[in-house]
Design a protein that fits this description.
The structure holds three protein chains of three kinds. Chain A is 68% helix and 0% strand. By secondary structure, chain A is mainly alpha-helical. In chain A, α2 crosses α11 (259-286) and α8 (183-190) packs across α9. Chain A has helices spanning 18-25, 27-49, 82-118, 120-135, 138-146, 153-162, 166-179, 183-190, 195-231, 243-250, 259-286. By secondary structure, chain B is α+β, with helices and mostly antiparallel strands. Chain B contains 18 helices and 21 strands. In chain B, the strands form five sheets. In chain B, strands 1, 7, 8, 9, 10, 11, 12, 16, 17, 18 and 19 form an eleven-stranded mixed sheet that branches. In chain B, strands 4-6-5 form a three-stranded antiparallel sheet, with helices on one face. By secondary structure, chain C is an all-alpha fold. Helix content of chain C is 74%, strand content 0%. Chain C is globular, with a radius of gyration of 24 Å. Classes of the chains: A mainly alpha, B alpha+beta, C mainly alpha. Chains in contact: A-B, A-C, B-C. Chains B and C meet through β9, α7, α14 and α15 of B and α2, α4, α6 and α12 of C.
């Protein structure tokens, strides 16, 4: 099962023209893009506009429900402003999500390209390596790696990336293998291009559609995994907020202070859904066959 | 050699009863008296634990929650109640100097046993079983959890099926307390196994206790049923079930819905206490525990070697707010590591004071000057340290963040680095690889005040010693006092020694004491017989007295 | 075919060894250890811990420990749990039932609903139904499970009192009806995500087939719409779904972890988490091997099924 491979050999300018127009017509994808832009802007600039900073503890104001005075979203068990924490947490979670996506895509693409293009002994070894990683349950990798490190955002990012690059590696290597014997590659080879040139300048751009779709979905998954790690108790350390640890620390107050769980829950769902919409839209847009209809 | 005053003069209800049984046993069939006293057991109780009991051989390495099972399946020779008083169990009487059970120098022991006790499989309990147990504890091939005290025993002799004697190589005052936590195991069941470490017994224990083992569904529950032939009073319950519910929020929810009858172990988290007291059909009990919560400081770190720093940090610790706001006023503030119920608790320790100004002043005077970022520094040492604890304890994490803010006000930077339990309490803790730690420690074995493992300089694992002195306390006076206290048998004399040690700890502050734990326990209305006891580690220690209506 | 199988088998064996080696290293090199949990016991000392570690053979050099473990595995002895001394295979077996029960019931639900939703979405592409289904599926995929599970418990167990708050059965009852009522909530919560996945895959698989020539031919022949749909389209669209099912096999292990925790379901995920938490090496290694085998078997099954169903695919 490979992502549709026809059509991508058309050229490198996939983002111009039809694909973009198709994406723009995909209403959910556009909504998703808008939401992500809005969320990102809010997380970057929002904290500057709020009257409280996210670490200020005020026990007298603890457990204020939303719309209490200047606490637009209420306060947490230590009386910290929830709106400020939510937005700062958004910075952390979105950053972790993006960084993990970049890192895992990088690992996956490099391994996938080499494995797919070279094939033979090296390619086989790399793919077996990928398979071996897939054999480990994700929870094992997450927790075993968590035992080695101090859980700050950078380390969490590395852990997430280290446990989610395999799919991209598989997609890329399958893609490359199918492209490897095409005319344009043979032509480049005859023209005396180096292997590296062929891999990264000729083949990679042709596989980029599939990579982008997978990468988008990886962001979505990374945000969820961050929450998952928090649930398991190995997440980002207090007092730094992340959506995951906010949600996790709220579960005991689900009955008495439900907003503590609902607000970060909505934030996560919104962000993840948006990325999934974008991924869906991209898939449709980059799939040449949908033109036939 | 009594541990507290003269326990044998104050006969408890249980003591009187056992006298009755003893008298009957002398003449007639022993079981008749037992049956007259105990009504037919009825009903069941489901106890919810947030950790899973997995070790059923009481002498193998285990954790608190396993003792919840041990207390109900097994019996010690004698136990200890909530007042620190010993009461006879499998022994006919608690050996004391007065009754000739222990020689005046503390070296020779003679224990008389009940003659009406049978193991759950019907085999009679005899002195051979006691001998076997004591020998097993120091058996080289057995993975015995605890040898302290037992190692001193020599020449165990079975005088008759109901009498056993042994010698000790040196007087050891804590030994009665250790014995009160030492459960007797059957020679015929465990001794016949090829390897006691892997014996079938370890997964289907046979004891003399009020409840018999029925089954365990791994990862789910353990089922015990009433032992109809129990030698003592009770049990009143027909079935006792221990259910494993890993998540505290879920545990509490299932208590609310009635899926479990009792929340044991850590119980209900303090932030649910208020709500829990309003639940219809539930009773909420505050049970003091002997564990003390502290911020422990690693004295091997340059930041903490200066006593001024430790004093300043204690002054900057807003204990009142932590206890009142974050812990809802449930635990009691303390200055000592002994529970306030203990005979050895020193009431006269200086009271803690929250005073940021004074803390700043002390640090200024000691030469810790603030740097550009507001963090103090002296001789190239930044007043900056990490603070760790087991990850996932929500209320404790709130406290850490609150303390972090207070410490910042005196120019001390504390970063939070919590770890998973298996990492936290491994070499990291034992070999003093941490800066500071929030930890609740139970310093005592039952009612005994001996803290040699914790405070003697020979107990610093990081420096080649062996013990639990992870703060790296190295104080010759404390060493000498502990040495002395371990050999004293008169409680009043011992108290003087341990009072002084408490003073030194309060002055030195290797750990900043915060509070003595209070566990919030909940059970269904109409359940009787629950009795908190700071001298044991688990609230299900007396399930034989529980009744449901 | 048989040459192919032998080749795959050899490859799988190498993979298993690789996985076990890496797993063993990672586990043993991680800080802490199986005895850490006992450090806070009153009277415990480092010397006691070291003595017991030596008695358990944990002080031997790692390569020796590994080879010892591997040799035993080879002769069928998976070792005993450090926590309760029970043989590892027995531990896994006991938890497997709970997980299978949950997984099978939730899979039935999710495949059932997922197929219907997917087919309807594909046949009425870009309709209001298709949009709603897409949005709901995406949202379902995005909700953190533990959050959703807790909300469900609060609503249906606490507020409404319709369903039990968790557990696999009432101890002492354990009738079919009892199991069934306890199954409803966890399997629905678990199915939520899977319905989303299945419906999305079904939709795209259907679309892949609908556009193909033989369907147009069938349509052109004048066959009734439902016949084309069910006999031609669905039969072909189910092919990739078989592959998917094979690939989903390994999620048996960790996939239900959160659901198991929230609903106190004594399954494999929970076992894995607890064993990892206590660094119960024999059980963790056993689970690793078990899950790696599932992955390999799942992949192999998927490949074979596809080859059997589609003669154009040749296994080589």
């Amino acid at each position: 099962m490979t992502i549709a491979s026809d059509g991508q050999s058309v050229g490198t300018a996939w983002w111009r023209g039809r694909a973009l127009r198709r994406f723009a017509r995909h209403r959910l994808a556009v909504t998703g893009t808008l939401l992500i832009v809005l969320l990102t802007l809010a997380c970057v600039f929002g904290p500057l506009l709020l009257p409280y900073d996210e670490l200020h503890i005020d026990l007298r104001a603890r457990f204020s429900p939303p719309l209490t005075g200047d606490h637009y979203l209420g306060t947490d068990p230590l009386g910290r402003d929830l709106a400020a924490r939510l937005l700062m947490a958004g910075r952390v979670s979105l950053l972790v999500g993006f960084a993990a996506m970049l890192l895992s895509t990088l690992i996956g693409v490099v391994i996938g390209i080499i494995a797919g293009y070279r094939g033979g002994w090296l390619g086989n070894a790399l793919m077996r390596f990928t398979d071996a990683f897939l054999c480990f349950p994700q929870i094992f990798l997450l927790l075993a790696l968590a035992a080695f490190i101090k859980p700050d955002p950078l380390m969490i990012t590395i852990i997430i990336a280290a446990t989610s690059w395999m799919e991209i590696a598989r997609i890329v290597s399958a893609e490359i293998r199918s492209l490897r014997e095409r005319d344009f590659v043979l032509a480049a080879r005859m023209a005396g291009a180096s292997h590296r040139w062929i891999m990264f300048r000729e083949l990679l751009p042709n596989a980029i559609g599939a990579i982008i779709v997978a990468a988008t979905l990886t962001v979505a998954r990374a945000i969820l995994i961050e929450a998952y790690i928090s649930f398991l108790g190995y997440g980002i350390q207090p007092p730094l907020p992340s959506w995951g640890n906010m949600l996790n620390n709220a579960q005991q107050y689900l009955a008495s202070a439900p907003w503590l769980a609902i607000i970060p829950g909505i934030a996560i769902t919104l962000a993840v859904t948006s990325f999934n919409f974008i991924g869906d839209g991209l898939r449709d847009a980059l799939d040449a066959r949908s033109d036939l209809k | 050699m009594t541990v507290r005053k003269t326990p044998f003069l104050c006969l408890t209800r249980r003591g009187v009863m056992q006298l009755g049984i003893g008298a009957a046993a002398a003449g007639l069939l022993p079981t008749i008296a037992g049956q007259v006293l105990a009504a037919e057991p009825s009903g069941q109780v489901i106890v919810g634990f947030s950790q899973e009991p997995t070790v059923f051989n009481p002498h193998m390495l285990h954790i608190e929650v396993d003792e919840g099972i041990h207390w109900n399946v097994f019996d010690p020779l004698f136990g200890v109640d909530e007042n620190g008083t010993f009461f006879p169990a499998l022994a006919a009487e608690v050996p004391t100097v007065e009754n000739g059970g222990i020689s005046p120098d503390g070296l020779n022991w003679r224990v008389k046993l009940r003659d009406d006790v049978v193991w759950h499989d019907g085999t009679p309990f005899t002195a051979e079983d006691v001998k076997y147990t004591l020998e097993l504890l120091v058996d080289e091939n057995f993975r015995s959890a605890r040898r302290t005290g037992h190692e001193l025993i020599r020449n165990i002799e079975v005088v008759s099926p109901t009498e056993i004697t042994w010698e000790m190589t040196e007087p050891f005052a804590p030994y009665p307390s250790i014995l009160a936590w030492t459960f007797m195991v059957p020679k015929h069941a465990l001794g016949s196994a090829e390897d006691p470490n892997t014996a079938a017994f370890n997964q289907a224990p046979i004891g003399t206790g009020p409840f018999k083992w029925v089954e365990r569904v791994a990862g789910d529950y353990i089922l015990l049923e009433a032992n109809e032939n129990y030698w003592g009073e009770g049990p009143h319950l027909e079935r006792l079930i221990f259910k494993y519910i890993p998540d505290l929020t879920v545990l509490y929810t299932q208590f609310k819905t009635g899926d479990i009858d009792v929340i044991a172990l850590q119980g209900i988290t303090p932030d649910h206490y208020q709500e829990a007291t309003g639940l219809p059909g539930k009773e909420i009990v505050l049970a003091p525990s002997s564990a003390m919560e502290s911020i422990s400081l690693n004295m091997g770190r340059p930041q903490f070697q200066d006593p001024a720093v430790r004093q300043a940090l204690y002054l900057a610790l807003d204990k009142a707010t932590i206890i009142d706001a974050l812990y809802y006023g449930l635990p009691r503030p303390t200055e000592s590591y002994y529970p306030q119920e203990s005979f050895y608790y020193n009431k006269d320790l200086p009271k803690h004071e929250f005073n940021i100004e004074k803390a700043n002043q002390i640090l200024d005077e000691a030469g810790w000057a603030r740097g550009d970022d507001g963090i103090r520094e002296k001789d190239g040492v930044r007043l900056s340290f990490s603070n760790s604890t087991t990850a996932g304890n929500h209320v404790r994490e709130q406290m850490q963040q609150f303390v972090q803010q207070s410490f910042k006000e005196i120019g001390a930077e504390m970063t939070i680095e919590n770890l998973p339990p298996a990492v936290m309490w491994g070499d990291y803790w034992m070999l003093s690889q941490w800066d500071s730690v929030v930890v609740g420690i139970n310093f005592t074995t039952g009612p005994d005040p001996d803290t040699s493992d914790y405070f003697k300089s020979t107990g610093i694992n990081a420096q080649g010693g062996s013990g639990q002195n992870t703060w790296q306390i190295n104080n010759p006076e404390v060493d000498a006092l502990l040495e002395k206290g371990g050999k004293l048998f008169v409680p009043e004399e011992r108290k003087e020694v341990y009072d002084r040690i408490q003073e030194i700890m309060r002055e030195d502050l290797p750990f900043l004491p915060i509070f003595q734990y209070a566990n919030v326990r909940g059970h269904q209305e109409g359940m009787e017989g629950y009795n908190p006891n700071v001298n044991v580690r688990i609230t299900t220690w007396n399930a034989k007295d529980w009744k449901v209506n | 075919m048989s040459r192919y199988l032998i080749h795959r088998f050899g490859q799988s064996l190498v993979l298993l060894i690789l996985v076990s080696l890496v797993g063993f290293m990672v586990l043993n090199l991680a800080p802490g250890g199986p005895l850490s949990q006992f450090a806070l016991t009153p009277g415990m000392s480092q010397a006691d811990l070291e003595r017991i570690a030596a008695q358990m053979g944990l002080d031997r050099p790692l390569p020796i420990q590994y080879l010892d473990w591997f040799w035993r595995l080879f002769v069928g002895d998976w070792g005993n749990s450090f926590r309760d001394g029970v043989p590892v295979l027995e531990v896994i077996g006991r938890h497997l039932f709970a997980t299978l029960l949950l997984m099978i019931s939730s899979t039935i639900i999710s495949v059932g609903i997922g197929t219907v939703v997917g087919v309807m979405g594909a046949t009425r592409r870009y309709s209001l139904f298709d949009y709603t289904a897409t949005v709901l599926a995406m949202v379902a995929l995005s909700i953190p499970t533990f959050w959703f599970g807790l909300v469900a418990i609060y609503t249906f167990a606490l507020d409404l009192g319709w369903l039990p708050a968790g557990n696999m059965y009432t101890i002492g009852d354990q009738s079919f009806a009892d199991y069934a009522t306890h199954l409803i909530m966890p399997s629905l919560v678990l199915a939520l995500v899977n319905v989303a996945i299945w419906s999305r895959y079904m939709r795209s698989a259907m679309l892949d087939v609908i556009d193909q020539d033989f369907i147009r031919t069938a349509r052109a022949k004048g066959l009734p719409r439902w016949r084309v749909l069910y006999l031609h389209v669905m039969r072909n669209a189910l092919l990739p779904m078989i592959t998917l099912a094979g690939l989903q096999l390994p999620t048996l292990l960790g996939g239900a972890l959160v659901t198991e925790t929230v609903f106190t379901w004594p399954g494999m995920g929970r076992l894995f988490l607890d064993s990892l938490g206590y660094q119960d090496y024999p059980v963790v290694m056993g689970l690793l091997m078990f899950s790696a085998m599932l992955v390999l078997v799942g992949n192999l099954l998927a490949d074979i099924l596809v080859a059997l169903a589609d003669p154009r695919v040749r296994l080589e």
